[in-house]
User: Fold this.
Amino acid sequence: MDQYTVTGMSCAACSARVEKAVSKLPGVTSCSVSLLTNSMGVEGSASAQEIIAAVEQAGYGASQKGGEAKAASAGASLGEDMLKDRETPLLKKRLSASIGFLAVLMYLSMGHMMWNWPVPAFLEGKHMMQGLLQLLLTTIVMVINQKFFVSGLKGLLNKAPNMDTLVALGSGASYFYSVYALLAMAYYLDQGDMASAMPYMHEFYFESAAMILTLITLGKMLEARSKGKTTDALKGLMKLAPKTAVVIRDGAETEVPIEQVEKDDVFIVRPGENIPVDGVVLEGSSAVNEAALTGESIPVDKAEGDRVSAATLNQSGFIRCRATRVGEDTTLSQIIQMVSDAAATKAPIAKVADRVSGVFVPAVIGISLATLLIWLAAGQSVGFALARGISVLVISCPCALGLATPVAIMVGNGLGAKNGIMFKTAVSLEETGKMQIVALDKTGTITSGEPKVTDILPAEGVGEDELLSLAYALEKKSEHPLARAVLLKAEEKKLAAREVSGFKALPGNGLEGDLDGVHLRGGNRKFISGYVEIPQKILEQAEGLADEGKTPLYFCRDGRLAGVVAVADVIKEDSSQAVKELQNMGIHVVMLTGDNEKTAKAIGRQAGVDEVIAGVLPDGKEQVIRTLKEKGKVAMVGDGINDAPALTRADMGIAIGAGTDIAIDAADVVLMKSRLSDVPAAIRMSRATLRNIHENLFWAFFYNVVGIPLAAGLWYPIFGWKLNPMFGAAAMSLSSFCVVTNALRLNWFNLHDTKHDKKQKRSIGSSGMGSEGAKEGEEGEKKAKAPGEKSEIRKKEDKRMTKTMKIEGMMCGHCEARVKKCLEALEGVSEAKVSHEEGTAVVTLSGDVSDDVLKKAVEDQDYQVLSVQ
Assistant:
């Protein structure tokens, strides 16, 4: 999306006009104009020159954003300067000067004329001189606020009237009618007809003309100050970016501007300094405060090999790092770009206000003229009819309509960013709260993604630490994924690392070696039971752990069982609470995983999800999402490359921040903290923002619907109500200010407070897919099936060629995944269902694949194929 700065816009009618003009250009596929940031985002093949020319032809100015965005991303001062509030200081000067002259004018026109306040002797009784002085003071105020007249006239000439047109017409009508009254009075005085001249003294509306301009300027200033606060989050992010970095150049430490840091440069960070760019630690260790990016106040320990991010604070140790991402590629820069891009996009709900704003100003001008003519026809004086027409012009406010959505989007997006929740567009911020179904990937989303020791079952006469020490000695030489879990547990308990001699890894079975003259073995039940007798009590406990989705590892020494260590990919601390919060919001929660059904159901029970769909391939996840979308709006939460198709297919893709770049790119929302509890928080933020937009739009419409009839004098014949043009101008000014102030209330919204969650009965039932549903998603089977029942689609699939392989050596879910992956990588294999417990792989073929090819693929992974049937 190409970004442009648009100048000359004063209200929603202006932004709608610019958007319409650019959208008409050949090659433009999307155009979004933000009145809040005076920016425009354009997608398509149209050239910058054509786009700028279209904006200028519509009566406004435009320039393409180029280097500024990059500089901002790099953290240069120009980035902050882009969002600097230049409007408020100018409006303050205009307002101060206007008030000074208006005070004198009001004293003379109302203080002296109405309440007989004293005036200098040379003015006493000199009515003509007083009228001329009012004319002079009003003219000065109009010159000070000439922007209204220049912009308003330009809009009128370009057939694009805007708010400034309304103000200019209202103030101008008061001024010129007053000039007419002054000339008429001069004429009768010249004729010596004092009786005819005196009534015109009460027909002066000079103070109204000046007061209208001053009050609108006051409203504009309040609005500008409030609008400035909506970008505080973005400004804060930009200020975090370091300006310099200490890099190693020619063997010496050199401090250079941040823009000169290149990828693969080696830089150093001392305690108390901010990390300048994204990198990886080469040497040293420290605790790094990442609150600037994630909102998490607890420091994260960093050691050799760990990644660090720009703008985070090195709190304790000295670290030496290699730059991996610099300039606009850093995490901070991407966050800034996301927030900025979201502000430049337009939420669907904004289209309602846009359609109204496009015809609002012409309609108001028409109503004003009709009001004037109707009152004249009704026999009222010119002054009365003119006052009603002017009141209609100055009370009507398209600004409130135009600001109702973008200010709430900006504040909501900024608050989300502050809490580590990145909404990429205004659409994603609006739509996230409308989700009815949330599909969660298991590994890395619900679970930590790293196997951990969950249970230790020592045999009789063996202590827990003794068993773990034996397992540690064997597993520290193993490359199996489960071995790391044992190592981490032993290191956590600070057990001594003893050396094993004669170590052997028996692929698919286990490990063996000698420790202090004692022969050790470790592996699966089948392997260990060939050497020792396993007590029934231990067997039952181990089987219970297996039913919970854990992998039991058996260990023995010198022919006697030492015990069992259970390992599993455990769920994150906040997963079950996050699922419960989603359900309390009325959302149906589904877990998707490629794991076997037994493990998946165990994790699903722990997390408390409504439905578990297991054994799903990446394309199967995408098909599941298709089917779920038939039942309601679906959000997919994932972190891996295999989740990208499903993230793209879902109504809303939510990526865990610690996931892959591909997953993050495919998502609409990114959770920087990698916490599942931020999913309900994102939904709350979306709902609060949408609620705020509805409030803003209600008051903007309500204000105009009530205010315009009052200003036109609709209630005057019944109740005697009429509106002074000056009060109309004040109301117009305050309407926009109130809308922006209401949006700023979002800054106090607590994303993690559950008390406002809508407790409702969830009507979304099971998808009817069970663990087989992933394979049927594309066909969209709608009817729920009883457990174990096969659909017609499944029966048809069963008729396709299948082969069952007997495989020896698989010990756990990781082994299953390894075999499954190698088989499904073969051309002609559409699916492989692998079970380490049964020692089988059922292969579904879409083409001719020989038994030898299947056998070789598995045996290349160090497993033994006993038969292929």
User: Anything to note?
Assistant: The chain is about 50% helix and 20% strand. Confidence is low (pLDDT under 50) at residues 67-79, 770-799.
